[in-house]
Amino acid sequence: MALEVKIPPMGESITSGVLAKWHVADGALVNKDQPLFELETDKITSEGTAEAAGKITFTVAAGTEVKIGQVVATIDTEVSSQKSEASPAPAAPTPTSDLRPLTFSETSPAVRRLAAESGIDPATVTGTGKAGRVTKGDLLAAGEQPAAPAPIPATVAGAAGLGPGSPSPATFARQTRTKMTKLRQTIASRLVTAQHEAAMLTTFNECDMTAVMELRKKYQDDFVKKHGVKLGFMSFFTKAVVAALQEVPGINAQLDGDTIVQNHYYDIGMAVSTDKGLMVPVIRGCDGLGLAGIEQAIAGAAKRARDGKITLNDLEGGVFTITNGGIFGSMLSTPILNAPQSAILGLHAINERPVALSGQVVIRPMMYLALSYDHRIVDGRQAVTFLVRVKQVIEDPSRLIVGV
Fold first, then answer.
1. What per-residue confidence (pLDDT) applies to 307?
2. Is 379 tagged catalytic?
3. Which residue did the predictor score with more confidence, 107 or 155?
4. Which of 82, 224, 333, 389 is the most buried (most CB within 10 A)?
């Protein structure tokens, strides 16, 4: 029985994607629930898995744009059942003296056709098929390997300083060209759109991180033992943002044409850097979560994003975004709005600096804060008030308990 492998539904707004890579070889035996391929869309990257065990045959090559529901392979489930029933003993190894290179005529028609198209000589490929025969999968794998760089004359190598033990000439390539993924294209488009359509402005402040750092140091071990996650800075800033949004509700609003939509919930987006690009999973109901709940939700969302397990629902519906460039060492930046949201808070590196406190110069761990906002809907007074409120909560977290 041949089972069709289809591109699974991703959500109403996603109708197509790119089959970025196959995780298995064409003609390979696969197990039920084994990851088969990676699909890149304009919003998320996800994996397709096998619904049954059997022998897989590709109908679509990697790099092809596909539609939701399209058949990209078939799985012959009878091959798997026959193998499990027969389970023949492995054949004795062929004596070395009988081994000989396969001739081109001894390869399958599919391999000969692919060899003609790719220009790869099957005689140069190590076969994994029966009796060492080269399979179509072997040839596809060989085609994905980078060609060995051509040697350069000794005179050129000497002039370039490439003596014995020097890096390979391939590392000195002047350019490489890689097509943008659909996700990266979407990120680029959204950022440009945000800059062109919003009246974006940024206001700055700084906050003393002493109180939060002391709390983390004092309770970190007990926090980890009880909740199974570290107490980080993001949960404090999330609660500070919720308090500021409640005090300045104008920032918890967005424009829909000429209509102002006021939000009365607190789903906060957390920017996460992945090897696929920037993603912003949303932490739901932050006003009802404690520090532990927020930290657990952030850790889970970040892991799903980096593992390629993020869903469309994880990314939708946020009212405000926090981005932390400080983890990479950023001192100051002007974050770009995450449309259609009206504001975004940028966090930065914590550095010890001399500051004036009660008439004395003291050294304190300081962080710059940056709030970018859409001036079409948010006034400067609101933006400054919001940022001051965040600063107050971070510098004195007991305000969260007292409610002031």
1. 82
2. yes
3. 107
4. 389
Q: Going from the N-terminus, what domains does the chain have, and what CATH number goes with each?
A: 2-144 (2.40.50.100), 182-402 (3.30.559.10)
Neighbours of 303 (CB within 10 A): 13
Residue 329 binned pLDDT confidence (cut-offs 50, 70, 90)? very high
Is the pLDDT higher at 49 or at 105? 49
The angle subtended at Cα 196 by Cα 269 and Cα 44, nearest 5°, is: 40
| 264 catalytically annotated | no
DSSP-based three-state secondary structure for 308 = coil
Catalytically annotated residue among 33, 98, 375, 396: 375
pLDDT tens figures, 38-50: 888 877 778 888 9
Omega of the bond leading into 101 within 30 degrees of 0 (cis): no
Quick one: tokens of 59?
Answer: 């109908």
Question: Using an 8 Å Cβ cutoff, are 122 and 110 in contact?
Answer: no
Burial 349-386 (b: 16+ CB within 10 A, else e): bbeeeeeeeeeeeeebebbbbbbbbbeebbeeebbeeb
Q: Is 237 exposed, middle or buried (0-12, 13-18, 19+ CB in 10 A)?
A: buried
What 3-state class would DSSP assign to 383? helix
Predicted confidence at residue 244, as pLDDT, reads 97
The more confidently predicted of residues 279 and 363 is 363
* pLDDT on residue 306: 84
Q: Which entry of 33, 221, 307, 379 is annotated as an active-site residue?
A: 379
